[in-house]
Amino acid sequence: MLPSSPVVIGVAVAVALLALFVLVRRLRGPSAEARESKRAHEAAQKRDAPVEIGETYEFGVTELTDHHSGDEVAVGKVEGFVVFTEDVPGGLEPGDVIRAKVLSFNEGRTSADATFVGRA
After folding, report:
1. How many CB atoms are located within 10 Å of the residue 6 CB?
2. pLDDT 10s digits, 8-51
3. Is the C-alpha dihedral spanning 28, 31, 37, 39 positive or negative?
């Protein structure tokens, strides 16, 4: 005979609803935001980079972040193309406009590494 106390029935219903929720989430797949991000990433891999190695570009800093090297880098975009700039001076803030020389492309050519040349 199965237990029929209200607590046991309530817990069983809660577990069943949780399992149903997880199942529905898995079947629905990624969110619209995740699908759009993937589409944009794939499109970026197919387009030609709007920057060239050895050239200097002027752009606004969108954020400062820690690079895998441990140093702080400035992140900005040239025609929507992400450029990570190292050797940035202290006091640099998002919104500042800088000049940077492109040194290399990252894997997939979806972004580039650059070195700080000066403030614009």
Report:
1. 7
2. 788 888 888 888 888 777 777 777 888 888 888 787 778 889 99
3. positive
Query: What is each CA distance from 32 to 28, 38, 70, in whole angstroms?
Result: 10, 10, 33
Buried b (16+ CB within 10 A) or exposed e, 49-76: bebeeeeebebebeeeeeeeeeeebbbb
**Residues 42, 45, 46, 48, CA torsion sign:** positive
Question: Sign of torsion, CA 93 99 103 107?
Answer: positive
CA-CA distance, 82 to 117, in Å (whole number)? 17
Q: Which two tokens stand for residue 35?
A: 């699908």
Say if pTM beats, i.e. exceeds, 0.70.
no
Q: How far is CA 102 from the centre of its chain?
A: 20
Q: Compute the 3-state secondary structure of the chain and give helix, strand, coil in percent, each to the nearest 5.
A: 35, 35, 30
Q: Name the residue with tokens 């001076």.
A: 89
